C-alpha cells in the first residue's frame, strides 16, 4: 500500500527549521515534500482579530490542501516545521485510510483534555476516536480530498485561526468537520515535547502586535452581544458535559 504524501510547511527564511524537519523525517524513515509557506511579513491582517502570522498560516495550509487536490492522492499528511513524530510514523501513514470516512485526523496532541467517542477504530497499535469537542492545534494531521475541498471553502474569508476552523468547538460540535483524534498521538510540537527539545526560534515576528492586541480588545462584544456569546458558551459547555456522561469520554491525548 502506498504511503500518503507528507507535506511540511516551511518558510524560505527558516532553513534551520527545514534542516530540523529533514532530520525528523529521515529518522522516521519518510521523505517529505516541502511546501513554501506564506511569509507573514508580506501579509495584511484579514480582520482585526487576526495577526499577520495567523493570516499567513491559513494561507500556507491552504497551499497544502490545494497541492493534494492537484494530484492523484486521496489523502495527505500535513506537518508544520517544528514537530517531532513518534514511534511507527512511517508505518502509520501507509494505513488504509479509505476504510474510514473523515475530513481530518488529528495526529497531534496539545496535552489538553478533550471529549472523544467512547468507541474507537484500531489503527495498528493506536486507536482513532471521533473528536467531540475542541482540541486546537494544526501542526500535524491527515486530510482527505473531501476535507481539503471543505476547508478551502470554509477558510475563504480568513476570519479565524486555521486550527479553530479545523478543530475548534463550533466546527466539531456542529458536525461541520468530521474529525478523529489519534490516541496516543504521534505528533507533538517542539515547545510542548516532554524531555529534550530542539529549541527552535520562533518565526512569528509581529511588529504590530500591540496594535493587534488593542484592535482585538476593541472588537470584543459588549452589552447584548456579550451576553449572547456567554449564553452560547455556557450552552456548549452543558452540552459537552451531557455527552461526556453518555456517548463520550474525556481524555488527555498522550504522545509517543
Question: What does this protein structure show overall?
Answer:
With 256 residues, the protein is α/β, with parallel strands linked by helices. It is built from 8 helices and 12 strands. 36% of the residues lie in helices and 20% in strands. It has an 8-stranded mixed beta sheet, sandwiched between helices. A two-stranded antiparallel ribbon has the order 4-11. It has a two-stranded antiparallel ribbon with strand order 6-12. The longest helix has 23 residues, at 223-245. It is globular and about 50 Å long. Mean pLDDT is 86; it is low at 205-219.
CATH architecture, please?
Alpha-Beta Complex
Order of helices and strands: EHEHEEHEEEEEHHHEEHHE
Structural category is alpha/beta
Cα radius of gyration in angstroms: 18 Å
Number of domains: 1
Number of strands: 12
Write the layout of secondary structure elements.
Blueprint: E1 6-10, H1 15-28, E2 32-36, H2 52-70, E3 75-80, E4 83-85, H3 89-92, E5 104-106, E6 114-117, E7 121-123, E8 126-130, E9 140-144, H4 145-154, H5 162-167, H6 169-173, E10 179-183, E11 187-189, H7 209-219, H8 223-245, E12 248-251
Parallel strand pairs: 1-2, 1-3, 5-10
Antiparallel strand pairs: 3-9, 4-11, 5-9, 6-12, 7-8, 8-10
Helix pairs in contact: 2-4
List keywords for this structure.
alpha/beta, Spore Coat Polysaccharide Biosynthesis Protein SpsA, Chain A, 8-stranded mixed sheet, two-stranded antiparallel sheet
Amino acid at each position: 500500500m502506498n504511503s500518503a504524501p507528507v507535506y511540511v510547511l516551511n518558510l524560505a527564511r527558516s532553513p534551520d527549521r527545514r534542516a530540523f524537519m529533514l532530520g525528523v523525517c529521515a529518522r522516521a524513515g519518510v521523505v517529505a515534500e516541502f511546501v513554501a509557506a506564506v511569509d507573514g511579513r508580506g501579509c495584511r491582517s484579514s480582520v482585526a482579530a487576526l495577526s499577520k502570522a495567523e493570516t499567513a498560516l491559513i494561507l500556507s495550509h491552504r497551499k497544502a490542501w490545494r497541492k493534494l487536490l492537484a494530484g492523484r492522492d486521496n489523502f495527505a499528511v500535513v506537518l508544520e516545521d517544528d514537530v517531532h513524530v513518534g514511534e511507527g510514523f512511517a508505518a502509520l501513514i501507509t494505513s488504509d485510510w479509505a476504510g474510514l470516512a473523515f475530513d481530518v485526523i488529528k495526529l497531534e496532541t496539545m496535552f489538553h483534555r478533550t471529549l472523544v467517542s467512547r468507541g474507537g477504530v484500531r489503527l495498528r497499535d493506536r486507536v482513532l476516536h471521533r473528536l467531540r469537542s475542541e482540541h486546537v492545534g494544526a501542526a500535524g494531521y491527515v486530510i482527505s480530498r473531501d476535507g481539503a475541498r471543505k476547508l478551502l471553502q470554509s477558510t475563504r474569508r480568513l476570519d479565524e485561526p486555521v486550527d479553530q476552523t479545523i478543530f475548534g468547538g463550533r466546527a466539531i460540535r456542529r458536525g461541520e468537520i468530521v474529525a478523529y483524534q489519534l490516541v496516543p498521538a504521534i505528533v507533538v510540537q517542539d515547545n510542548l515535547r516532554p524531555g529534550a527539545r530542539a529549541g527552535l526560534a520562533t518565526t512569528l515576528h509581529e511588529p504590530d502586535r500591540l496594535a493587534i492586541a488593542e484592535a482585538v480588545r476593541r472588537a470584543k462584544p459588549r452589552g447584548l452581544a456579550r451576553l449572547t456569546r456567554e449564553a452560547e458558551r455556557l450552552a456548549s459547555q452543558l452540552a459537552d458535559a451531557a455527552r461526556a456522561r453518555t456517548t463520550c469520554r474525556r481524555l488527555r491525548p498522550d504522545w509517543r
